[in-house]
Automatic annotation (TrEMBL):
Organism expressing this protein natively: Piromyces finnis
Boundaries of every Radical SAM core domain copy: 50-289
Source taxonomy: Eukaryota, Fungi, Fungi incertae sedis, Chytridiomycota, Chytridiomycota incertae sedis
Record SUPFAM superfamilies: Radical SAM enzymes
Name of the protein: Biotin synthase
Cofactor binding notes: Binds 1 [4Fe-4S] cluster. The cluster is coordinated with 3 cysteines and an exchangeable S-adenosyl-L-methionine.
Domain of life of the organism encoding this protein: Eukaryota
Length: 385
């Protein structure tokens, strides 16, 4: 195994090929696995030191036109109470994000593509930018002209290139759109016939062309996926040149076609609490291994330790943050809305308070970074406000 070669330098990026990646994804040799984690951490240290960047997320709406077969807020799920926060509620959340020192505010929702939603979202983005700059001026007694305010990220689905440009012009500079799988055939199994892999891929190309710091990622351990698929996914992320990686484990969600399939296949083998614990351990380990390999191949991308990890094990995020991840995205959606935005069964219902987050990060010998945007190294954003 290449990771066991004595001449390997700490922090050295490795352009592993498909066969090497698949072998490492399925490797059962604990020495190799630990070498993988340690090397991923050495690369993280090379580019970021002990810094952990923070992004505050508000899930402002669970309304969605899409019907993705794995998603708990898919269009056809009738048991979910739909909501959309109003502008003032979102602005109050932006105050919370800023006052807690989270440099970036991510607005996340289901996909709604009406002209009215786009116009409203443009106004929200402009208002957040203006309000956070004013708050910075007041907090630090700086001239408004010197204040950047919050960096604004969006995760609102597939839009036209024109609409991505409009949101960029309004002030958004980051966008997260998960490819879910680089394999069009697997993508087709996870989505209805009117959802197309080529459209999503083109959206990512459009986002990069416009100038967004572009984030994407995959579902790890989803039904029908193979280790070869995951190897191809890592290579896809590298070819795309994604600036941010947001990927996480597939966690069973009831009332969905993929959830039903999982229950009839994997789920039927889980009969005891011990079985459940072992499955969660397997999925956690696979997810962290994919994080590590992505870091080893891509080097300087921002890689998030996703919230979904908490559904698998209480300490899973800590493990991820010493195995390639350098980013945490605490959810600050008000509790009254959070219960209706359940993408993952077992997803923590408690907002990750600043003090607890600091303790978590300090417990692994790292430092949270406050009041910084934490831009991707490959995509400097100086002087862009």
């Amino acid at each position: 195994m290449i990771l066991m070669v004595s001449s390997l330098e700490p922090g050295q990026i490795l352009k592993l090929n498909r066969n090497e990646l698949q072998a490492l994804i399925t490797c059962k040799d604990n020495k190799v696995i630990q070498a993988m984690y340690h090397h991923a951490e050495s690369i993280t240290q090379r580019f970021f030191g002990n810094k952990i960047y923070l992004r505050g997320i508000v899930e402002f709406s669970n309304e969605c036109e899409k019907n993705c077969k794995y998603c708990g807020v898919r269009r056809s799920v009738k048991s979910v109470k739909r909501y959309c926060m109003d502008k003032e509620e979102i602005l109050k959340c932006s105050d919370v994000v800023y006052n807690n020192g989270y440099g970036t505010f991510m607005l996340q929702s289901g996909e709604i593509t009406t002209p009215e939603r786009l116009e409203w979202l443009e106004d929200v983005v402009r208002s957040i930018k203006k309000r956070s700059r004013e708050l910075e001026s007041k907090t630090f007694n700086r001239p408004l002209s010197e204040c950047k305010g919050l960096q604004i990220a969006l995760s609102v689905g597939e839009l036209s290139s024109e609409n991505y440009q409009r949101l960029y012009d309004a002030g958004a500079r980051r966008y997260l759109l998960r490819i879910e799988s680089s394999n069009p055939k697997l993508y087709a199994k996870l989505h209805p016939k009117d959802h197309h892999w080529e459209v999503r891929h083109q959206c990512l190309l459009d986002l990069k062309r416009i100038g967004y710091q572009t984030g994407t990622g995959i579902l790890i351990g989803v039904p029908y996926q193979t280790s070869w698929d995951i190897a191809d996914d890592i290579l896809y992320l590298d070819r795309l040149g994604a600036h941010m990686i947001g990927m996480g484990p597939y966690v069973y969600q009831s009332n969905t076609p993929i959830g039903n399939y999982w229950k009839l296949t994997v789920g039927k083998t889980i009969k005891t609490e011990e079985d459940q614990k072992n499955y969660h351990q397997y999925l956690k380990d696979l997810t962290i291994r994919v994080y590590a390999l992505t870091r080893i191949v891509m080097g300087y991308a921002n890689i998030a330790a996703t919230t979904a990890l908490i559904a698998l094990a209480p300490n899973a995020r800590q493990e991820a943050l010493v195995s390639g991840c350098n980013l945490v995205m605490p959810i600050i959606t008000p509790d009254e809305f959070r219960k209706e935005y359940s993408l993952y069964k077992g997803k923590s219902e408690v907002v990750a308070h600043r003090e607890n987050l600091i303790k978590l990060i300090h417990s692994i010998g790292k430092e949270p970074v406050f009041f910084e945007w934490g831009d991707a190294i490959s995509h400097p954003m100086e002087n862009k406000k």
